[in-house]
Specification:
This protein is an alpha/beta fold and 130 residues long. The protein folds into 2 domains: 33 residues, no CATH class; 83 residues, Nucleotidyltransferase, domain 5 (2-Layer Sandwich). Helices cover 33% and strands 19% of the residues. The protein contains 3 helices and 7 strands. Strand 3 and strand 4 form a beta hairpin. The longest helix has 21 residues.
Amino acid sequence: MRYFETRKARIEIIPMIDIMLFLLVFFAMMTLKMIPTSGQLSKLPTSSTTVKIPPPKLMIEIHDDGTLWAEGSARSAEELTAMVKSKNPADLAVTIAGGEKVNLQQLMSTIDSVKRGGAVQIGLAAKTSN
């Protein structure tokens, strides 16, 4: 009498592996979205008149030692100008982020490099002061 035999319970592991892989990819993507462009600048200057702008097409970071970072690598001022020229500068929105210890001359030199490339939409990143 085969119908009355008890069957051993089986746990299907393949669907569980699929779900765990999906969760891993989901959380990895969400974590990457929360990290800034290169993750190296953490202290932006504050301003009481900040406004939210759309995400930039080009993010330039000025580090405390004066190095410029764009698209994940260090760039010189000339490389930055050439990069802006190669990206259709009339439609290019550039945001410049600098730490608290970046001096005004470094900021102005970076703005000059971007303007020499032809960009006209330039924004400065800042945190809202409370």
